[in-house]
Structures are given as C-alpha cells and as structure tokens.
Amino acid sequence: MSLQVGIVGLPNVGKSTLFKAITKNPVDINNYPFCTIEPNVGVVSVPDERLDKLAKMSKSQKIVPTVIEFVDIAGLVKGASEGEGLGNKFLANIRDVDAIAQVVRVFNDDNITHVHDSVEPKRDIEIVETELILADMVTVDRTIVRLEKLIRGNDKDATIQLELVRKIQEALDRGGLANSVEFDLENEPQQIIVREMSLLTMKPVMYIYNVSDADEKLSDDLENKPHVKLDIKIEEELMEMSEGDAKDLGIESHLNDLIIKAFDLLGLQTFLTTGEVESRAWTIKKGSTAPEAGAVIHNDFKDSFIRADVINWQKLLNAGSWSAARDSGELQTVGKDYIMQDGDVVEFKV
After folding, report:
1. What is the pLDDT of residues 266-297, one digit of tens each?
2. Which of 102, 124, 311, 134 is nearest to 206 (CA)?
3. What is the pTM of this model?
4. Longest Cα pair distance anywhere in the chain, in angstroms?
5. 15-23 helix and 232-239 helix, angle to the nearest 10 degrees
6. Per-residue pLDDT at 32
C-alpha cells in the first residue's frame, strides 16, 4: 500500500527544504517563488522501534519498515483556482495525493522573501484553504449539473448522490471544507461520488509550522490545528552533521514526529511479521480485518484465508519466541472477522 502526503503551501515557506531533509534527496532550492514546478516524490521509512526489537529476538537477516511517499508540490498562490501562478497544474498535483501537509511560515527573516511581504501564518493558511475551496466549488457545480441530468433519466443512485453533493456545496459556500460534511460510509452510491469528485478539501490535513525555535509558543488558533513544529533550516543542517556532532551541540531532529503524524493522518496502522529471514512492518487501513491484512502480503491470502495466529508485539518479546508464546497460551487464533490492532504480530494460515 503506497499512500502519498502532499507538501503544500505558499511559495518560499520551506517546502522544498523540508522535502530535502525528510527524504535525504537533493532538490532545487532557491530564494524565489515557483522554484518547484514538477512535483518531487520521495519515499520515507516510518520509524518503528518494534521492528528492531523483533528482529533481534528472531535473529532476522533483514528489517523492512513500512513507508510513506511525500510529494513536494510547487507553491500555491492567491488566485490559483483561476489559473494564477501555475495554479491548475498545482491543484491537479494536490488532487493526486491522499493527504495534505501544509507548510506555514512562522519564522521572521528579512533575508528570505515572503510572497505577501509579511509573516502572518493565519492569513497564509486561509489563502491556501480558500483556493482549495474555490477549486472544489467548480468540481461540485459540474457534478450537480451531471447528476441532475441522470436524475431526469430516473437514475436512483444519482438522487442519493445529489443529496450529499448539495450538502457539500452548502458547506463550501459557507467557507467550510468538504471533510466537515458527514456521509454514510456504508452507502455505496455516496462512496462512489465522493471518490469520483476527488475533492481537495475532502482530504485530511495537517500543518507544519516552520519556526525558528521548536519550543516556540503559538497562538491558540494555530495550536488547535493538527500540527508539528519544525525548524526546517536546522533540519537541513542536521543532514550534514554526524550524529555525534549533533549530540554534542544538543540539537535534536523532530522529523520523526512529522513522519509518524503523517502516517496517522492517513488513517494507517501496521501489523508485523517476524522470522529468521526478515522482520517486516506491513501497512493497512485502520479497521482492516485479518483477511484484508493478509491480502497486503499476497492477494491470494484474502480469498484463501482460514485463520491467523496473532499476538501483540510486546507480549511476543516478553515470551521470547513464537514457540514460547504458543506454549504459554499467549497466541490468539482468530478468524475472518478479527479486526487488526496496531502492533499485532501475525502468522497467516491459508
């Protein structure tokens, strides 16, 4: 399962520098807007100390962590929804990702240009949010016209879908986001229309506050949003340092906080497998059943699933081995209805 988090924001707020730091990939960074035109994509390992401990227990030959893809999308400007800057292209790139991480400039530095000539985080958030809302309004209006035609042809699903789309339209008109509108996750016609529209404001969002001090106190309206605080320039400098030098200087990276929060933002969790060949983390959506988890390993596992032996990773470590856990009765044999828990170690029976 490969899911993407799009790094967005106004030009010159630190997006590409963050991308370079988090992916360890060199990208073009300059002090002017629209430095990034084509999106850069980088694969990032999700930190997981459980894997190291399980690998040591099992004497695994290799460790395979789960990953997230981060996409560095060019700066969004006011008027992007009407084609300003490289608006249409940027919005299309945002539409392709599964979640949004907006970089917001909080630090002050007269040597680094701000596209609006002043540092006002709340305003910058609202500019980006407004452009996404305006773009979604266009999509919703077109969808309503199409559904109304289908309804005239007695399409029952279109009637169900139109009711939801009009609710989304009302939310957008009020300046709200599409993801504020509740809909029936079990209603297939509604699921289909939400998927087809691929609304920008339906995607989960987090904020990355680019600060000059990671301990900086922010205003309540910023603190109350799902976020991480990073001194992105320091994170870039840490790339060039050895761990020993960074430790001597008392500098600590906070990039792992971002990676973990992004993983959670996507609604993901991991289950684990361990043995002499490898210890591996597998990515699944929260709420996945055991057969759905098995399908991540191999497509045939879902249909041929019989049962699975499951144990929490810490209980397995405490037992010392799979066989010891079995002998002590710690292993749980589960069927098709079992809902996977984060940190389950699994052996599938097919």
Report:
1. 889 999 999 999 999 999 999 999 999 999 98
2. 102
3. 0.82
4. 72
5. 40
6. 37
Query: Cα dihedral angle (300, 306, 311, 313), rounded to 10 degrees?
Result: 0
Q: Is the pLDDT of residue 28 over 80?
A: no
Q: Please tell me the distance from the alpha carbon of residue 71 to that of residue 127, in angstroms, as a whole number.
A: 20
What Å distances lie between residue 70 and 22, 40, 327, CA to CA?
Answer: 9, 8, 43
CA distance 106 to 103: 9
Task: Kindly list the strands in the beta sheet with 40-45, ordered across the sheet, starting from the edge strand earlier in the chain.
Answer: 40-45, 67-72, 4-8, 99-105, 205-210, 227-230
Q: What is the DSSP string of 248-307?
A: HTT----HHHHHHHHHHHTTEEEEEEE-SSEEEEEEEETT-BHHHHHHHH-THHHHH--E
The token duo for 344 is: 């389950």
Task: State the Cα angle at 52 between 262 and 308, rounded to 5°.
Answer: 80
> Is 10 within 8 Å of 128 (Cβ atoms)?
yes
Cα dihedral sign for 245, 249, 250, 254? negative
Which phi and psi angles does 208 have, rounded to 5°?
A: -115, 105
Looking at the chain, the number of H-run helices and the number of E-run strands are 14, 12
Amino acid, res. 9: G
Q: Which strand (E) or helix (H) includes residue 163?
A: helix 156-173
Coil, strand or helix: which one is 40? Answer: strand
Two tokens, residue 74: 């060019």
Burial classification of residue 18, based on how many CB atoms lie within 10 Å of its CB (0-12 exposed, 13-18 middle, 19 or more buried):
buried
- From the CB of residue 57, how many other CB atoms can be counted at a distance below 10 Å? 17
**Rg from Cα positions in the chain:** 23
Cβ contacts of residue 214 below 8 Å, gap of 6+?
Answer: 229, 230, 231, 234, 254
Lowest-confidence segment of 110-114, 147-151, 227-231, 273-277 by average pLDDT = 110-114
